[in-house]
C-alpha cells in the first residue's frame, strides 16, 4: 500500500527476509544505515583562492541489530552456526529488512547484500523474572539498497 503524499508511516511491525523466508516477529531494528567515505579535494582556483571540495568516496559496509522475543524458532541459531564454523558460502545471504503497516502490507524494504550474522545475544536469564526473554541478532552486510 503506497502512502499518500505528505504522509509519514508508523512502523507497525518489522520482518527479516532471508532465502525467501520472512520472520515477522521482529520487535526492534537498530543501526540500519547507508554510509560512504568522504574525500576532500584541496586545490587552488584560477585566481589563487584555496578551496576544499568534498566528493563521495567508497560505500561503507554496515551492521544492523534485530531484536525479537525468544521463541522455539531456531532460524537465527542455524544461520549463525554456519558463519561461526567458517561456512561463509552458505552463511553469506541476500535478505531484506521489511517495514509493515498496520494491515500487514510491506511499505519499505531495505535490501542487504552479502549479509551474515555476527553475533546472537540472549537477554539475562533470572529466576522469577516476568520480563520477556529476547534475542538480539547482529547482522553485518556489505551493501544496502532501499526499495
* Average of the residue pLDDT scores: 86
Strand content: over 45%
Helix-strand topology string: EEEEEHHEEEE
Sheet with most strands: strand arrangement: 1-2-5-8-7-6
Overall helicity: under 10%
What's the number of extended β-strand segments?
A: 9
Largest sheet: 6 strands, antiparallel, barrel
Radius of gyration: 20 Å
Total number of helical segments?
2
Q: Report low-confidence residues grouped into runs of 5 or more.
A: none
Distance between the termini: 13 Å
Q: What class, by secondary structure content?
A: mainly beta
Principal-axes shape call: elongated
Strand and helix map with partners:
Blueprint (H helix, E strand, L loop, with lengths): L12 E6 L2 E10 L5 E9 L5 E10 L2 E8 L5 H10 L3 H4 L1 E8 L5 E17 L11 E8 L1 E4 L1
Antiparallel strand pairs: 1-2, 1-6, 2-5, 3-4, 5-8, 6-7, 7-8, 7-9
What report would you give on this structure?
- The chain has 147 residues and is mostly beta strands.
- Helices cover 10% and strands 54% of the residues.
- It is built from 2 helices and 9 strands.
- The strands form 2 sheets. Strands 1-2-5-8-7-6 form a 6-stranded antiparallel barrel. A two-stranded antiparallel ribbon has the order 3-4.
- The longest helix has 10 residues, at 75-84.
- The protein is elongated.
Keywords:
single chain; mainly beta; 6-stranded antiparallel beta barrel; two-stranded antiparallel ribbon
Amino acid at each position: 500500500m503506497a502512502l499518500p503524499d505528505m504522509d509519514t508511516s508508523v512502523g507497525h511491525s518489522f520482518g527479516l527476509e532471508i532465502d525467501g523466508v520472512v520472520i515477522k516477529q521482529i520487535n526492534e531494528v537498530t543501526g540500519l544505515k547507508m554510509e560512504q567515505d568522504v574525500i576532500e579535494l584541496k586545490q587552488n582556483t584560477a585566481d589563487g583562492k584555496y578551496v576544499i571540495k568534498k566528493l563521495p568516496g567508497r560505500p561503507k559496509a554496515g551492521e544492523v541489530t534485530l531484536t525479537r522475543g525468544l521463541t522455539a524458532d531456531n532460524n537465527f541459531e542455524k544461520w549463525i552456526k554456519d558463519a561461526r564454523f567458517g561456512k561463509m558460502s552458505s552463511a553469506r545471504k541476500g535478505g531484506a529488512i521489511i517495514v509493515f503497516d498496520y494491515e500487514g502490507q510491506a511499505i519499505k524494504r531495505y535490501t542487504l547484500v552479502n549479509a551474515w550474522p555476527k553475533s546472537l545475544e540472549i537477554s539475562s536469564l533470572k529466576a522469577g523474572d516476568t520480563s520477556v526473554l529476547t534475542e538480539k541478532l547482529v547482522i553485518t552486510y556489505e551493501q544496502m539498497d532501499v526499495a
